[in-house]
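Budget justification note: compute hours in this period were largely spent on complex prediction jobs such as the one shown. Inputs:
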Amino acid sequence: MEIKTDYFEDLKIFKETSTLVWFFLAMAFLLSAPLLAGDYVIYMLSLTAIYTIVSLGLNLLSGYAGQISLGHAAFLGIGAYSSAYLTVKLGLPFWFALPASGMITAVAGILIGIPALRLKGLYLAIATMAFSFIVDEVILNWESVTNGANGMKLSPPSIGPLTLDSDRRFYYFILAITLIMLWGAKNITRSSLGRAFIAIRDSETAAETMGVNLAVYKTIAFIISAFYTGIAGSLFAHFIRYISPSNFTLLDSIGFIIMILVGGTGTLLGSVYGAIFITFLPEGIRVLKDFFPFFVVETGLQGLVYGLILLLFILFEPAGLYGRWLKMKRYWKTFPLK
Amino acid sequence: MFFQQLISGMAVGSIYALIALGFVIIYKATEVINFAQGELMVWGAFLVLTLTTSLGLPLWSSLLLSLFLMALFGMLLEVLAIRRLVGKHVFSIVMATIGLSFVLRHLAGIIWSYDNFPFPSLFPRQPLSIMGLTTISSSHLGIILASFALMALLFLFFKFTSLGLAMRASQQNQLGASIVGISVKRIFSMTWALAAILGAIAGILIAPVQFLNVNLGYLGLKAFPAAVLGGFGSIPGAIVGGLIIGISENLAGTFLATWVRDIFAYIILLGILMIRPEGIFGLQEKKRV
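Corresponding output:
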């Protein structure tokens, strides 16, 4: 085992050389993927990248700051619809709509974050769920802005002279944004902000005693999380180019929680694993469906699998895939000793 | 018009109250928050339907049989999944019971399909007229009366039976209860059995008014506003909260806009959480480090 001799060693972005090597290998794969792989793979990778941003946002809120949210699909929806409204109805450019929808969602994050200051655990779960139902219904009924149940069609985004009209071009753009967001999240977790989040998660009373202002930091956690999800929402809207209220349901919120739970709560790499998992899960379910033709309704099967995964991971593997990976690594490093 | 809306709101409200009661007793006993209470409701109603239509049992005997089966089912869930959760972090508990609710809902969907089923009515179909002034639906009145009778029974159960007393004892102090010879584990199972029965009755009462459908379980989520409004963990609070939510959302749906009805409960919920999170009957909780 390596022993750290310096405080700054613990703050490094890449703590081990092997991590850096793996990072560059992954980057090489992701950058060359459009040259080698087919459209389908690019589509899945883009979707994974978008979900990674959601996962990072939710993990900062739930995994780091310990605040439950059952309403992240609503944040995604607010981001997506803001972006759609700004570009389609107001005709604003995409480079403006992307950060703007992040900001708008962050404001929504403040709205839910402020009542959440007085709430813990269960109440917060119920409040965010209520928020998500209300947002759903508002999207469905505010027809002058959202087109109601008909949904909205978006045109391919362009930045200056560059039109991101093909999936491949947009893929590089999404990848770049995801890396920036990942870098941002990494820096949040290694700053005093991230340490304050962790302190709040582990014990609110103790954190308060140490001088962490609960109200301020919880609100910041909600704002950051909502901003991340809003950015992801904007990318999502322009990526699939058609959004309707059915994209942002309770099932999707639960899917996001499965992401951080399966990946590993409170770890950034876990967020990435979780995003990969949740993107490829529906594909797995589709394959499964061919083997079990008696499951007639596909959404039903998806709900069943989501439920089972939640239940089994909570009961048997609460640390998630990343936790399992750490355990395996530790086992081999200390192999004969244990 | 107003009076009829009031009565139908009260009928739905007493269903919310029954569901809210189910998870308040679970919460009091084990501090587990059961997001799957609405699914117990659906399973109970579907069992009755299966027993009457497929096995051809008479309505009342299939009712009793399904309540018995649901009690067993509740105990089974407790032993298989919930027992491991007691004492865990709230996040784990919430997620696990949400997972459980998804599993139960979609298992029901796979078993009984996602279609709408008409459900046999327990009460006469023709409306009642009150002193010739106005008419009210007798099934709404029946729901209200049946729910109140059930609540009274529940009150007597907790007050006078030894099982009810043992449940209250272990709610107050688990260690103390086990010292005087109460098997707390058995009480936990019994609590789940009771909650499953309450859920099933709620389902059987509401199913004739609406169609029986797997997604009826979403109604169970409305019981959260009810429980929070009344004060989470308070039994009279669950009843009062359920009635207020049922009546006010019905009136809001009639006099404001139809789509407001579906979310009015959640608007009340957010409002109450901002103003008075401990609810009407709740106590302020204090926590030590």
